């Protein structure tokens, strides 16, 4: 009996070693990998963790993309074989479930409009000329490269770097200008009053905050919420470009004038561009829709109706109902 136990123990130890070896190779699932129409891996979507960075940069370990596994066996997270269920990372149970039915939204912030249930978002398109190569760096790589950044003078007055957060495989990305006081204090984007309004805008189109990715053009707060200066934007915006290339969203919604002008590399103002689909100039196939900044909407509630019209376009675009 003792021999059998010892043998079993040895076999289990060998199996565990084998699984650890696969994990070291970057393999996160054993079994059939589910694909979208464009070949994007659902498994990868579920495994990626939302990125939320704070001032004390604790670089997350690099998570290589899962390798496809040829097998008919049901999909099994490798992590499930290596750790007990109660030790699963928190993000695995909070990650957005894109196909999950959601309750209709009562859009009180835009009036009393009640919207019907959305259908499942269509698969991401690959348009001619799109940048189809997979991103070679992860958000964690970019965050690590940013480090305790001192590339412009804003580092001297900030409390926390606000890198961005959300679904690293998001189809929809929101980009604002720069962190405010609440964001600077927390290290998270859009968490103050304007951020709460943005969350409502996202929920109004039947998405969750965790479904999208939210970032700013600048990662440090300009003192007194002054406008960023040209040299500060020049120093910081390349990190946003890299985040966009890494996430490769289907649509970027720019919030306000500076973010719109920064990403479109134009001097045309938001009043002319708002609500009109644009091409993101750096990566073919990514669309961009400018709308008002939520902070502006708080000051000018009469503009909420326009913003709601923009958000309806966002939803229709993601559902494949309009072709800009
Ligand atoms: S704003 Fe950007 S470039 Fe300037 S210090 Fe902050 S992170 Fe660095």
Task: Give your account of this protein's structure.
It contains 12 helices and 8 strands. By secondary structure, the chain is α/β, with parallel strands linked by helices. It folds into 2 domains: 2-92, no CATH class; 95-318, 3-Layer(aba) Sandwich (Uracil-DNA Glycosylase, subunit E). Strands 3-5-4-6-8-7 form a 6-stranded mixed sheet, sandwiched between helices. Strands 1-2 form a two-stranded antiparallel sheet. It is globular and about 75 Å long. The protein starts with a helix and ends in a 6-residue tail after the last helix. Residues 17-134 have low confidence and may be disordered. Bound molecules: iron/sulfur cluster.
Percentage of residues in helical conformation: 25-40%
Structural class: alpha/beta
Low-confidence stretches: 17-134
Instruction: Write the element-wise H/E pattern from the N-terminal end onward.
Output: HEHEHHHEEHHEHEHHEEHH
Question: What's the number of extended β-strand segments?
Answer: 8
CATH architecture designation of the largest domain:
3-Layer(aba) Sandwich
Q: In whole angstroms, how far apart are the ends?
A: 71 Å
What is the tally of helical segments? 12
Query: Strand-residue fraction?
Result: 5-15%
CATH superfamily of the largest domain: Uracil-DNA glycosylase-like domain
């Amino acid at each position: 009996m003792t021999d059998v136990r010892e043998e079993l123990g040895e076999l289990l130890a060998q199996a565990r070693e084998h699984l650890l070896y696969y994990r070291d190779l970057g393999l996160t699932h054993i079994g059939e990998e589910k694909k979208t129409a464009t070949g994007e891996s659902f498994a990868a979507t579920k495994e990626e963790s939302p990125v939320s960075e704070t001032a004390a940069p604790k670089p997350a370990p690099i998570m290589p993309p899962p390798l496809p596994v040829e097998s008919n066996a049901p999909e099994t997270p490798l992590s499930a074989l290596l750790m007990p269920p109660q030790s699963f990372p928190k993000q695995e149970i909070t990650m957005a479930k894109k196909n999950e039915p959601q309750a209709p939204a009562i859009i009180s912030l835009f009036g009393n409009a009640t919207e019907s249930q959305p259908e499942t978002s269509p698969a991401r398109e690959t348009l001619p000329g799109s940048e189809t190569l997979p991103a070679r760096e992860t958000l964690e790589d970019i965050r690590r490269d940013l480090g305790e950044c001192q590339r412009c003078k804003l580092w001297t007055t900030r409390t926390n770097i606000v890198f961005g957060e959300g679904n690293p495989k998001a189809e929809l990305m929101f980009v604002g200008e720069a962190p405010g006081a609440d964001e600077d204090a927390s290290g998270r984007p859009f968490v103050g009053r304007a951020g709460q309004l943005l969350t409502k805008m996202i929920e109004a189109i039947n998405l969750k905050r965790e479904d999208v990715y939210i970032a700013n053009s600048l990662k440090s707060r300009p003192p007194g919420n002054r406008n960023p200066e040209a040299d500060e934007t020049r120093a910081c915006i390349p990190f946003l470009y890299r985040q966009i290339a890494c996430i490769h969203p289907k649509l970027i919604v720019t919030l306000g004038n500076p973010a719109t002008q920064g990403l479109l590399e134009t001097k045309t103002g938001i009043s002319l561009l708002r609500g009109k689909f644009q091409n993101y100039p750096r990566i073919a196939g990514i669309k961009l829709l400018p709308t008002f900044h939520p902070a502006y909407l708080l000051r000018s509630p009469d503009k909420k109706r326009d913003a709601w019209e923009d958000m309806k376009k966002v939803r229709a675009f993601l559902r494949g109902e309009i072709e800009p």
